Amino acid sequence: MKCPVCQKDYFSKHELEAGLPAYKCKECEGIWVSAAQYWKWLETRSDVPEIADAEVQLPVEQEGPARLCPETGHFLRRYKVWPDIEFYLDRCGNCTGVWFDAGEWEALRSRDLHDQVHLFFSDVWQRQLREDQTRLRMTNLYREKFGEEDYARIQEIRAWLEGHAQGRALLAYLTDRDPYSIAG
Ligand SMILES: [Zn+2]
Ligand SMILES: [Zn+2]
Asked: Could you tell me which of 14, 56, 61, 124 has the fewest CB atoms within 10 Å of its CB?
C-alpha cells in the first residue's frame, strides 16, 4: 500500500475510532479508511442518516499531483464536504475508500460529522453544497456592495414586501420615479 501523498508505504494500522481500524501514514499523518471498515463501523452507531440517492461522480478540480488509491490504484477524486469547511476529501471511485489528510478526520469529528462521511458523496448533497456556495457568494457580494447596515435594512424591506398582500403595488410605488404623476 502506498500513501497517496508520500507515494511510499509508510502505513501502519491505526485505530481511528473504537471499532474503526484504518491506516495511518507515519510520514504525512494522513489516514486511509477503507469503505468496508467504514460501513461496518457505521452500523454500530445509531441515528446515522441514510444515503438519500445514488452517488454521482462530480469531482472538484484537482489541485496538485493526482492521488492514487492505496488499495486499488485508481485515481482519488476530490469532494467538497461542507460549506465552511476548507478542505476536500479524496475518495476512490472504485473501492469508495476515503483519504483524510492529517487533521481532517479530527476536524469532522469535532463537528460530529465523521459518521456522515458517506453522505458527502451523494448527488443530493453535492448539488445542495453548490447551491449553498452560490448563496454564500451572493450574500457576500451584496454585503460588500451595500455595506452591513444597508444590507440588513434592504433584507428587512424585502421580507416585509414578500409577506405583504399589496407587495407588488408597494414595490411599484417604490421603484416608480414619480408615483404621483400621471405620465409615469
Ligand atoms: Zn503519507
Ligand atoms: Zn480504491
From this structure: 61
